């Protein structure tokens, strides 16, 4: 996400590198490129112009600290202003009320039904809630079926009434069902249209009036760029929603909607969708997103994702195995599964500072571990437990069974051995030895 914008902003801010001081001339030159980068990212011209004017005012008004180069100072100011433009502080979802009622709105095709499931899964797994999904789209063929499929996948109950064509009555019945069955969150999925129309707005306004939700969220496809912002404004004028959800952000290299939607509707972005899986939902942190846009990565989010998959009991078992030199391919496979649960690989790599530039143009397949898993699954129990028994004839059999080559099997065995040695050194606290081993691996 934001690949094009990040690249152009990096080039724009590069103008100031090497300059001894900030002047009106070099700031103007830099901000002209910054404004152009924002407009190319589908940010409204007025928003881009106001943004660069604020940055210019701050840059020329700053007393440059001796520890900061002009380029570093400009990056800091741009980062702070980007954070402010996208909302400043993180904005959580309102879960007051018993049950808490969340009304989902948006155009058809914005990913509303899928995101209703993602939000239910997030509240169930991260907030220990018992959500109920309510199907109020009575127009789109198979909309009710889709929500039931989503609910089954995440093991969340779905309330629907196929014989009823009144969305208001269904929504009210859904809230009543939740109260009677111990559900403390109700997520109401409503119908979308291909365009904003009076009938659609009247219907969702009536649902809103009937169920009095604690939270009304507008779901928008970020890939529609400036159109997404305009649609959000039209909805907000009538519905006065509480927050925005941006879907398909992983497919948007421009990012104009994320940057400008807050300043147009004055409502926070609360969540973003970053992939197809039910776990691909992130709370929107403006400061972290600003870091990513400027190529600084997002280490905090990366650590949080790792901690979510971290199992202390498993870690202790692994520690003992490493100490006894019993770390095998089954353990390696478990580590791979945990990494995969953290999200798609390109998104994870983008959270590492500087990795975005290094990986520019490199296509990181989400199935990056597929051939490794195939090789391990082709091994016998003995081979996975004790890799040292794998000789040339076994390598041929493993390669054939996994649809890979002997060369790939050899490569995996080499990487596994190097990793095992490093883990052993880390166990013994041998930091210096580990650094030496890593140095040899790179030669």
Give a summary of the structure in a few sentences.
The chain has 443 residues and is α/β, with parallel strands linked by helices.
Could you walk me through the main structural features you see in this protein, from its secondary elements to its overall organization?
This protein has three domains: 3-85, Up-down Bundle (Four Helix Bundle (Hemerythrin (Met), subunit A)); 100-296, P-loop containing nucleotide triphosphate hydrolases (Rossmann fold, 3-Layer(aba) Sandwich), CATH 3.40.50.300; 302-442, 434 Repressor (Amino-terminal Domain) (Orthogonal Bundle). Helix 1 runs antiparallel to helix 2. Helices cover 57% and strands 9% of the residues. It is an alpha/beta fold. It has helices spanning 3-14, 24-40, 45-61, 70-85, 112-125, 143-154, 167-180, 198-211, 226-239, 256-265, 286-293, 299-309, 312-323, 329-341, 345-350, 355-358, 370-377, 381-385, 392-402, 406-427, 431-442, and strands spanning 100-106, 131-136, 157-159, 185-190, 215-221, 243-247, 269-273, 281-283. The protein has 21 helices and eight strands. The longest helix is centred in the C-terminal third of the chain and has 22 residues, at 406-427. The protein starts with a helix and ends with a helix. The chain has an eight-stranded mixed β-sheet, with helices on both faces.
Keywords:
443 residues; alpha/beta; Four Helix Bundle (Hemerythrin (Met), subunit A); Rossmann fold; 434 Repressor (Amino-terminal Domain); 3 domains; 8-stranded mixed β-sheet; 21 helices; flat; disordered C terminus
